[in-house]
Amino acid sequence: MSAETWALTDSHCHLAEDVLFAQLPDIIAAAKQAGVSRFLVPAVRRRDWERVVQLSHLPEVCAAALGLHPWFDVENPADDLAALAQALQQYPALWVGEIGLDFHRASDAEARARQTQRFVAQLDLAQQYQRPIVLHHVRAGAAVFAAFQQTGFKQGGIAHAFSGSVETAQLFIKQGFKIGIGMMLLNPNAKKLHHAAAVLPLDALVLETDSPFMRRDAVNTPANVRQVAETLAQLRGESLANIAMQTEANLNRLFFKN
Predict the structure, then answer these.
(1) What distance in Å separates the CA atoms of residue 194 and residue 117, rounded to the nearest whole number?
(2) Residue 98 known to bind ligand
(3) Within 10 A of 27 (CB to CB), how many other CB atoms are there?
(4) Mind listing the pLDDT tens digit for each residue in 12-41?
(5) Is 100 left (phi over 0), alpha (psi -120 to 50) or beta?
(6) Which of 125, 147, 233, 247 is the most buried (most CB within 10 A)?
């Protein structure tokens, strides 16, 4: 089936990163050549926000998100959170992200407490303004779900770069999340992810690259979501067209749920 009869979305690409932003027309053109026509663009630091808002006006960007990534400590978190609240008021279509917890990076109690405090504060804003989130979660599943319970967060979103078990995925799905399947699927040794991607309901999955990251040999780009889709189709024994159509419908339900 030709690429003209279906299209894919990269549901997680950092187009605001310099290496992609500097060659954005070529990046978008190459993605379209591969059948990838839409992009969801999250921020990771406050300094990204202006550029991400700028990108949100492109016709190819179906959604954009502002947030504070757990990897990066900030000097004045209260100022950044106030600025995030102001931006959410100003731009009613923006999501909140990339936010979350990464207890692989934060191995001591103090660092984890700082991450959790920022995460909870951003969840509060996402719930207040009724926005989905782009969720980063590494070795912190119990703490993530505890934060959802603490804040009463009910807006759902995307559990980005999922690599866990079927059981964990099902917990996210019950919480209103779609499961982000990315470049790790191309790793033949990612057996747990392969199993989850094969058996989870297709209406719970979305595709992503995490560009420009996730490749050691080259700069990752949104065009590579085509490889993710093809691998998912092989694992599930389904056509590429069906994978594309269903994952697009899944994203559209998130975009238009309100």
Answers:
(1) 33
(2) yes
(3) 22
(4) 999 999 999 999 999 999 999 999 999 999
(5) left
(6) 247
Q: Is residue 158 domain-resident?
A: yes
- For residue 201, what is the domain's CATH number? 3.20.20.140
Residues spanned by the domain of 190: 8-64+74-212+224-255
Predicted confidence (pLDDT) per residue in 113-149, tens digit: 999 999 999 999 999 999 999 999 999 999 999 999 9
Indicate if the alpha-carbon torsion angle 109, 112, 118, 123 is positive or negative.
negative
The answer to the question of whether 4 is labelled as a binding residue is: no
For the residues of the chain, what is the DSSP string, one character each? --GGG--EEESSB-TTSHHHHTTHHHHHHHHHHTTEEEEEEE-SSGGGHHHHHHHHTSTTEEEEEE---TTS--S-HHHHHHHHHHHHHH-TT-EEEEEEEETTT--SHHHHHHHHHHHHHHHHHHHHTT--EEEEEES-HHHHHHHHHHHT----EEETT--S-HHHHHHHHHTTEEEEE-GGGG-TT-HHHHHHHHHS-GGGEEE---BTSS-SSS---GGGHHHHHHHHHHHHT--HHHHHHHHHHHHHHHHT--
Residue in the block written with tokens 């102001």: 86
Flag whether 79 is marked binding. Answer: no
Does residue 60 fall inside a structural domain?
Answer: yes
- 218, part of any domain: no
Question: pTM value?
Answer: 0.96
| Domain tally, the chain | 1
Half-sphere exposure of 235 (CA within 13 A, CB side): 25
